[in-house]
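Observation: inputs received (chain + NAP).
Thought: call the complex predictor directly.
Action: predict_structure
Action Input:
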Amino acid sequence: MTRLRFAVLGGTGKEGSGLALRWAAAGHEVTLGSRELDKAGRAAAELNTTLGQNSVRGMVNRDAAAQAEVVVMAVPYAAHASTLESVRDVVQGKVFVDVTVPLDPANVRRVKMPAAGSASLEAQQLLGETVRVVAAFQNISAEHLKSLGREIDCDVLVCGNNSDAKNLVIELAQAAHMRAWDAGPIENAQVVEGLTSVLINLNIKHKVKASGIRITGIQRS
Ligand SMILES: NC(=O)c1ccc[n+]([C@@H]2O[C@H](COP(=O)([O-])OP(=O)(O)OC[C@H]3O[C@@H](n4cnc5c(N)ncnc54)[C@H](OP(=O)(O)O)[C@@H]3O)[C@@H](O)[C@H]2O)c1
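Observation:
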């Protein structure tokens, strides 16, 4: 696939930095976004050390989003609306990948969706219809992402209303050594986001850090 210019908002965190690491390793141009420029720079330097090359940069979220072709957001749900607001005008017309799960800090084991239906539906409403919002990676533990180069034993369900944008995200998942499936319109992300609480229950019960899901019954290409 062609080299893409990415921003990962919340890219200093566990999930965002793991995705950024894998996409930078696959040859994409990646910028980590943060609320603080220094923090973004430090996180980028750490990834560059791991990669053994100088290919990741750090910027504040808004600048990172403005210069990117594809914007990915992985922030805690408490920061979802404010981060979306801060980049709304600079992501118009772009593919916007929402990884956020609306976990309830009072009980992360129980599904609790926001009034909009899900975090990614909220993103679509807040950003407007010209932004191609794609919901993906919510069921992939950051534990897997940091083991660079290793195939991840979990599937990615990709939801959104634009087929080209979903196909791009499926290719990006493949570039990061994951299998991904088109799981239908953005409304279906409610189920995918909810599955994360199911996986958290399984992690706790079985004393593991990174359970995941697999789709069966379809020939793998
Ligand atoms: N961790 C996982 O295994 C995993 C798996 C699947 C999905 N997810 C989802 O991915 C999202 C990120 O998870 P994470 O574990 O990476 O979270 P995290 O490490 O706690 O936070 C990610 C980044 O979000 C920013 N942030 C934190 N609080 C904020 C606030 N109040 N306002 C604005 N920005 C704030 C911080 O960046 P700055 O301080 O640099 O701005 C932080 O580094 C969540 O929605 C989570 O449910 C996580």
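Thought: report the result.
Final Answer: The two ends are 17 Å apart (CA to CA). The beta strands are 5-9, 29-34, 56-60, 70-73, 95-98, 132-135, 155-160, 179-182.
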